């Protein structure tokens, strides 16, 4: 099992509640888990490390406390940074500084999507702004019944720029609904989020949702890590491309990845009625 001492990061708790399962908890409950710059940088470091850890096969992402998964970006902290101050009297040069900053922020959130291991987000309480960016980079999203969502960015004068506007239309099945919630910034509940595909399950409270996520992570972790890594990779690749491209990529990927002992072990375990134990990745 992985060692939690190797994952000491400010504003995050990383634990390993079951074999091959990691639990990443955003830990700034006194500020409703609102993100400042060091937090999204640490998030990237955590997920990059978990991605390559042979002792991890599935990850659960939650927020500490009862009030919020995350209330989004810490606007007060962000307003104090130099990124919002013109770096040059030349607008093009100022714009390029801001562009680099935005791309860096995007990369940190995308590290969750790039992570080789499946990631399950559990949303509860307030899930505003950056909460949508972050959970949409996860593979599976669950919510407590009292969760309140909002794509909040238009209320602070910007278009969401860290992933929601690119990923939400692919996660939800109704373009009109997506545009409505993004343009109005209205708050909506967990049942509506489930209706339109933002989350795949709603549970009575945070505890029940986290328990379900951990159970699900345990099931995923019991599978071949070669198979789960490949499944996530191919699903993400195919999501943004045509069927023919997806099929060709699958063929190229599996041409290498089916050459694993995991396939033989999995088949024999069914015939021999035994539990298979897969090697570390």
UniProtKB/TrEMBL annotation:
It comes from Polyplosphaeria fusca. It is found in: Peroxisome. This is ClpP/crotonase. It holds the Pfam family ECH_1. Transmembrane segments: none annotated. PANTHER family: DELTA(3,5)-DELTA(2,4)-DIENOYL-COA ISOMERASE, MITOCHONDRIAL, ENOYL-COA HYDRATASE. Pathway: Lipid metabolism; fatty acid beta-oxidation; Mycotoxin biosynthesis. Its main location: other. InterPro entries: ClpP/crotonase-like_dom_sf, Ech1-like, Enoyl-CoA_hydra/iso, Enoyl-CoA_hydra_C. Belongs to the enoyl-CoA hydratase/isomerase family.
């Amino acid at each position: 099992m992985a060692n939690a001492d190797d994952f000491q990061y400010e504003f995050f708790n990383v634990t390993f509640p079951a074999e091959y399962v990691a639990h990443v908890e955003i830990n700034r409950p006194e500020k409703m888990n609102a993100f400042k710059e060091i937090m999204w940088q640490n998030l990237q470091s955590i997920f990059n490390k978990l991605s390559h850890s042979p002792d991890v096969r599935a990850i659960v992402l939650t927020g500490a406390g009862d009030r919020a998964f995350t209330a989004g970006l810490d606007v007060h902290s962000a307003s104090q940074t130099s990124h919002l101050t013109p770096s040059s009297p030349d607008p093009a040069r100022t714009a390029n500084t801001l562009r680099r900053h935005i791309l860096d922020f995007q990369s940190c959130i995308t590290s969750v999507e790039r992570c080789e291991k499946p990631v399950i987000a559990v949303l509860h309480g307030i899930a505003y702004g950056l909460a949508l960016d972050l959970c949409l980079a996860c593979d599976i999203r669950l919510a407590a019944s009292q969760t309140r969502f909002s794509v909040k960015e238009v209320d602070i004068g910007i278009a969401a720029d860290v992933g929601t506007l690119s990923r939400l239309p692919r996660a939800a099945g109704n373009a009109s609904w997506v545009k409505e919630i993004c343009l109005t910034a209205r708050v909506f509940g967990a049942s509506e989020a489930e209706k339109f595909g933002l989350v795949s399950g709603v549970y009575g409270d945070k505890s029940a949702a986290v328990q379900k996520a951990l159970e699900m992570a345990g099931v995923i972790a019991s599978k071949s890590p070669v198979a789960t890594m490949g499944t996530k990779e191919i699903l993400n690749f195919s999501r943004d491309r045509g069927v023919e491209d997806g099929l060709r990529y699958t063929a190229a990927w599996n041409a290498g990845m089916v050459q694993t002992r995991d396939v033989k072990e999995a088949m024999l375990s069914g015939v021999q009625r035994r539990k298979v134990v897969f090697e570390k990745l």
